[in-house]
Design a protein that fits this description.
Blueprint (H helix, E strand, L loop, with lengths): L2 H17 L6 H27 L1
Helix pairs in contact: 1-2
Organism: Iris pallida (Sweet iris)
Protein name: Cytochrome c biogenesis protein (Chloroplast)
Length: 53
């Protein structure tokens, strides 16, 4: 459930960092949240396949 919050959070962090002088900091945050998001989606799909079989 938490990974749904990662996308708006990522956008907020990216906007905040691009406005401030910490522009480079936005990239690690962004990749970290995207990584978690896709990892969670893959786990959900695997769980669905297990339920069907």
């Amino acid at each position: 459930m938490y990974y749904i919050l990662s996308i708006p959070g990522t956008v907020g962090i990216s906007k905040f960092c691009s406005k401030s002088r910490y522009k480079l900091l936005s990239f690690p945050f962004f990749h970290f949240f995207v990584f978690i998001h896709f990892k969670s989606m893959k786990l959900d799909k695997l769980n669905e396949k297990r339920m069907e079989s």
